[in-house]
Design a protein that fits this description.
The protein has 199 residues and is of the alpha/beta class. Helices cover 36% and strands 24% of the residues. Strands 3-2-1-4-5-7-6 form a 7-stranded mixed β-sheet, with helices on both faces. It starts with 6 loop residues before the first helix and ends in a 5-residue tail after the last strand. The mean pLDDT is 85.
């Protein structure tokens, strides 16, 4: 059974990681986000909000209401106009083909049904719309991948699956992958996918 992490504890745990490089990675992924209607999956306490592009319609979903309350305060502090919805990615409450871009940072390690989540993202993306992910995943090396498999038995108690093969899951769900960039020797991947236009 997964342990509950409050918004305060989450920010406390993330603070040193943000300073060690995650802030830079967040800026990198947000530089790739374009389009007028944007959806962030699993916004958490809003750590991406300070680098949101201006002048765009941005909707955030997050299943934990305590996290949303913290994210709202962060949006107000940085004067960003953001719409928040309390929802799981597997059951998005939006019409089909609504968004130009869907993005997420370090989210799919927690999603209970990642294939269901990717299917929903495909549904709400416009034809030709992009999926942009920054995810920690199961690395490729034989030894380190086994270490991650063993470690996952511990991290899964916290609801974190560190050995997911997220690129493969996205492809299986129907995304065309445009780009995969290994970060930190492949422990983290920047993934850019596109919803194929219907023939």
């Amino acid at each position: 059974m997964a342990l509950k992490i409050t918004a305060f504890i989450y920010d406390l745990l993330m603070s040193p990681l943000e300073k060690l490089g995650l802030q830079r990675l967040r800026r990198k992924i947000l530089n790739l986000v374009s389009g007028d209607k944007i959806l962030e999956i699993g916004a958490g306490t809003g750590l991406n909000i300070p680098v949101y592009p201006d002048g765009k319609e941005i909707v955030c979903i997050e299943p934990k209401f305590g996290m949303i309350k913290k994210a709202i305060k962060r949006a107000e502090k940085h004067e960003k106009k953001v719409y928040f919805v309390c929802s799981e990615v597997e059951t998005l409450p939006f019409k089909s083909e609504t968004f130009d871009v869907v993005f997420a940072t370090f989210v799919f390690c927690e999603v209970k049904d990642p294939e269901g989540g990717f299917n929903e993202i495909l549904r709400v993306l416009k034809s030709g719309g992009k999926l942009i992910l920054l995810e920690h995943v199961r690395p490729n090396g034989k030894i380190i991948s086994k270490v991650f498999d063993i470690g996952n038995k511990i991290t899964s108690i916290l609801g974190e699956n560190i050995n997911r093969q997220t690129v493969e899951l996205a492809v299986k769900s129907g995304f065309s992958i445009e780009k995969v960039e290994d970060i930190y020797d492949g422990i983290v991947k920047l993934i850019v996918g596109v919803k194929r236009a219907k023939v």
